[in-house]
Give the backbone structure.
Amino acid sequence: RPWERGDAEPPAPNGTVQQLPDVIIIGVRKGGTRALIEMLSLHRVVAAAQNEVHFFDWESHFQRGLPWYLSQMPFSLPGQLTVEKTPAYFTSAKVPARIRQMNPAVKLLLIVRDPTERVLSDYTQVLHNRLQKHKRPRPVEAVLMKGGEVNLGYKALNRSLYYLHMENWLRHFPLRSIHLVDGDRLVREPLAEMKEVERFLELEPQIGAANFYFNKTKGFYCLRDRGKERCLHDSKGRAHPHVQPAILHKLYRYFHQPNRRFFQLVGRTFSWN
Ligand SMILES: Nc1ncnc2c1ncn2[C@@H]1O[C@H](COP(=O)(O)OS(=O)(=O)O)[C@@H](OP(=O)(O)O)[C@H]1O
C-alpha cells in the first residue's frame, strides 16, 4: 500500500480528522508523563499521540512547521480532545513562546515528582541507555558528586530545579493554564489525581476505580481499558541505584531552597521539601 511505502498519506478512518493539540503534557522528564497520558486516554473524549513529537524543542522538527506537527497527531472525531506529551518541553527555554504562538489558550499539564527521586530516575534511564549501547556505566556517586559536594554540572540536577523552568513558562502562560499533577501521588492514588485532571480539562467525569488495579509483581497500578488490562512498559518503574545516605542527604539539602521557590511560584506545596 502506498502509504506504507511513504508515498502517500494513509486514509483517515471514517469521519475523523487530525487536530492540533488542545492539551500538551510538557514534562517533567521521568515525572510520570507516560502514565499520565495513558491514564488520560482512558477517557473516551481524549485522543492521544502515541509518540513523543518533539516539535517545539527540536529545530529540525520545528522548521517543518505546523502542517508537519498536525500530521503527527492522532485521528480523532471533531469535538475530541487531542493530547501529546513531550517531557523535554518543560526544560527547553524556547518552547513556551513557541507554544503560545500556536495557541495561547492551550491547556498545559505538568507532572512533577520529588526532585531527588527524579534525578535518580533520570540517572537510571541514562544508565540503561548506556548499557544498551555497550557503553561503560558511570557509578551514581561519581555523577552526583564532585569534590565532596553536589556536582552542579550534572544536567539531571538542573532538570529538577523546577522553579527555574517554571519562571520561564509563567512569562508566557498564566498559572491557570498549567495544571500541576503530583507524580508521587499519581503512583499511589492514580484515580484521585486523574479526577483533578478531568476537572481541569472540563471533561465529563468518566475515569473510575474500575479503570485501575494494583499489580503486585510490577509494584504499580495498571490500567483496565474497555475490558483490556495493560501495564506500562518495563522501562517504567525501574529500581533506582542505592545511594549512600550522606550523599542523599546532600541532595535533599541542595533542593530545599529551590523547592520552596517552586512552591511559591505555583501557590501550593508537595510532599517533598
Ligand atoms: N502506573 C505506573 N506504572 C509505571 N510507572 C509509573 C506509573 N505511574 C507513575 N510511574 C512513574 O513514571 C516514571 C517514568 O516517567 P516518564 O514516563 O515521565 O518518563 S520519561 O521521561 O517519559 O522517560 C517511572 O519512574 P521510575 O520509577 O524511576 O522508572 C514511574 O515511577
About this structure: The mean pLDDT is 96. The longest strand covers residues 107-112.
